[in-house]
Amino acid sequence: MTSHPPQTAAPRLLAATDRFLPSDGSPPVEWIVLDGLTSYDTALAAMEARVAAIAEGEAAEAVMLVEHPPLYTAGTGARDDDLLDHRFPVFSAGRGGQYTYHGPGQRVAYVLLDLKRRRQDVRAFVAALESWIIATLSEFQIVGERREDRVGVWVARPEGERSSDGAVSEDKIAAIGIRVRRWVTFHGISLNVDPDLTHFSGIVPCGIRGHGVTSLADLGILVSMPEVDALLRKNFETVFGASRPATVGG
Q1: Which residues are catalytic?
Q2: Would you say the pTM of this structure is higher than 0.85?
Q3: Known binder of ligand: residue 187?
Q4: Distance (Å, rounded) from C-alpha 217 to C-alpha 228?
Q5: Helix segments in 56-121, DSSP class H
Q6: Does 119 appear as a known binding residue?
Q7: Of 199, 227, 224, which is closest to residue 213 (Cα–Cα)?
Q8: Low-confidence residues of the chain, pLDDT below 70?
């Protein structure tokens, strides 16, 4: 019998990509902005319906931009001991990842794309989401970074307290959690614009201890949600291709 060494996963950062374009002839992605605060149940039902329609070829791909009332969501990898304070409603999200917080001042973008029209490569899709966020942050002269062992986008805080090994402090500014059904993606990203950062204290965000969270406002960038949305759309089109607006009142 021939023995083979155990296979190890390729480094996550090798999946870096700044383009995740659809095949020629695909219709533009529908860009939907829900006004006001959208309940999690409402957003989840809308995602489920749209994903089914996309999978059946009955609807265009879409990005849904929402703000939620304060709540926590638990991904499929959530651990009970990461819920520190049940101060807000907790929803089972069905996406990958652990606990995360959503609330006013945070832009949540649910990204509903058909990977059969693009690349059937989930790791490359996640990398493209990170590239999208990093490009948007750069518009504010903020350097967002990826990490090999941590999905999401991070900001170095050299003014913060260093770890015992001398490493520079860093905070998470954007979280990513996705699910794929019939090669259609849903859930997506959350970018901290100006949320109440104390609301994150009820959980261990994304199951990661030893690091904090930050926001555009915390970094000194005071900007309105429509301004953020405009830059998100601009950079989305660079990474993922054309979009068309479809504003829906909430």
Answers
A1: 206
A2: yes
A3: no
A4: 12
A5: none
A6: no
A7: 199
A8: 1-10, 16, 160-167, 206-210, 247-250
